[in-house]
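Model it.
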Amino acid sequence: MMEFKKAKLDNLKAINELIFESRSVWNYPEDYARASLPLITIDEAFLNSQIAYEIHDSEFVGFLAFENHDDDIFLEHLWIKKSRLKQGIGNAAAKFIDETAVANGWKKLKVFPDPSAEGFYLKCGFKNTGEKFPSRVPGGPTFTLFEKVY
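Modeled.
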């Protein structure tokens, strides 16, 4: 049974380990992967100020979080344990994300997916806005803004 639980500070280390392991699936060049880690690392302040969930399915299998940037709500994180990819966890997370957006009265949800994950977001009903942004890390990929209207 898939469960989405409020992220706990006690699990901060496990959350970051899962994020780093999950990110490795995209095989970015080592220099970029290392330099980008601070941008995806979760800290206590983030967990205390944002809406964040752990995903459990008999074990800790994922993490997702929303962040408010100037009244725009972003899906800032969605990470699934590498060994549990392609097992329906992402689809369950997408359903939970939609339910959370509706429950919170969000009219729109935005995301900057890694280029390799764009297909997943399209399948989940997000639209490619065509707006492109360079990585904040030199040598990184270009990211495209996606959004979903509720």
